[in-house]
Amino acid sequence: MTARTAAWHAATVVASRPETATARRIELEVPTWPGNEAGSHLDVRLTAPDGYQASRSYSIASAGPGTRIVLAVDEVPDGEVSPFLVHDLRDGDQIEVHGPLGAFFVWMPSDDPAPVQLIAGGSGVVPLFAMASAHAASADATPFRLLYSVRTPDDVFFADELEALVGERFALDLVYTRRAPANAECAPARLTVEGLRAAVIPADQRPRVFVCGPTPFVEAVSGWLIEAGHSAARIRTERFGGS
Ligand SMILES: Cc1cc2nc3c(=O)[nH]c(=O)nc-3n(C[C@H](O)[C@H](O)[C@H](O)COP(=O)(O)OP(=O)(O)OC[C@H]3O[C@@H](n4cnc5c(N)ncnc54)[C@H](O)[C@@H]3O)c2cc1C
């Protein structure tokens, strides 16, 4: 693997569309982008006409050597940056991005034959989707499993793409916290330690685990994984903020 050095880049919005009821998928063309591993993120910097600047981190839903980058931004009500990205950004707009960042929270094919467990809360699925897609595109035979906690069926990011990945090498478990589909086996409820244990690769298989989402979600899940016997050294986490 060649090292990809983080730098500032000019990015142009080339496409965008609703991802969920509250989120938008944004595709950027970044001619100087060095490519990125699956799971990395970047910083977006916006500059107002009066020179005021604001930056926030966003995971990259795409991976590989190309110069097209896909982001998926969920609106945080009353937030400073995400409402602008979701509602006001237009095709052709220019923004600045700094990256790629986050070499620790990435997946790439390796000699480690252990299965990979992904655990997402809400928009935390963005980097995990990049990992699942990169895995599907590779010859890597290790099994992947994604446990994805969302409020309702309308809040599932990358719903069709995730469904299409399901097969011998990828399993998807959705947990609905507020409203479940009519044919769901379980009533909507927040993820619990028991629910987690039932839906993740058992600790005795020594999976590599990637957990991403709002900070309280990541902290609860990490604690439950340790309680269930998973080694802290096998768990990687990314916190999106919030309390
Ligand atoms: C490494 C990394 C990757 C990220 N990737 C993504 C991504 O792919 N998609 C995405 O939608 N977001 C992602 N985020 C979150 C993103 O950086 C912003 O925090 C989020 O968009 C809110 O920014 P804002 O300016 O709208 O809100 P702010 O003005 O910063 O905050 C407004 C209020 O919302 C709270 N808040 C801030 N962030 C969150 C949050 N994530 N959840 C709940 N409450 C919050 C704050 O505490 C504050 O009270 C990522 C964060 C990190 C650190």
TrEMBL record:
Keywords annotated in UniProt: 2Fe-2S, Iron, Iron-sulfur, Metal-binding
PROSITE patterns, A to Z: FAD_FR
Gene3D superfamilies membership: Nucleotide-binding domain of ferredoxin-NADP reductase (FNR) module, Translation factors
Domain of life: Bacteria
Pfam family, one: NAD_binding_1
Transmembrane segments: none
SUPFAM superfamilies per UniProt: Ferredoxin reductase-like, C-terminal NADP-linked domain (SSF52343), Riboflavin synthase domain-like (SSF63380)
Cofactor(s) required, per the database record: FAD
Residue stretches making up the FAD-binding FR-type domain: 6-107
InterPro entries: Cbr1-like_FAD-bd_dom (IPR008333), FAD-bd_FR_type (IPR017927), FNR_nucleotide-bd (IPR039261), MRET (IPR050415), OxRdtase_FAD/NAD-bd (IPR001433), Riboflavin_synthase-like_b-brl (IPR017938)
PANTHER family: NADH OXIDOREDUCTASE HCR, PROTEIN RFBI
Protein name as catalogued: FAD-binding oxidoreductase
The organism of origin for this protein: Microbacterium algihabitans
Lineage: Bacteria, Bacillati, Actinomycetota, Actinomycetes, Micrococcales
